[in-house]
Amino acid sequence: MVGGNAKNLSPGVISRLKSEWEDEYKTFQKSDLSKKRYVYFWADGIHLHARMESSSECVLVIIGATEAGTKELIAIEGGHRESKESWLSLLLDIKKRGLTFAPKLAVGDGALGFWGALSEVYGETRQQRCWFHKMG
To answer: What CATH number has the domain bearing residue 62?
Structure first.
């Protein structure tokens, strides 16, 4: 939706699309996880530079792998860097949405905020550092 293909999008169309996406996101944030069981979590904070600003925004992402091997987006939310408080808020939210079964394993980078929060919310989950982040 950028570049030459976006030239025919009016401000009204952009506003409508933004509103629809916000509604979809709000619905996603409230989705019931009570019947879900994930064997693995992958967690990462993705830093985005929007509008060429000097500071980046951090988006926290958790993807889960089901017992059948299907990967599903569990949570995506803006956070204050990759702090323990941001991760704790996100993990408590997915637990509140019904995800009471702790995953067997969580994979993430070396950011300590996630590991501290994970220990508080899903203390029985084993932790593994992502090979890409470990070697990179």
So the answer is: 3.30.420.10
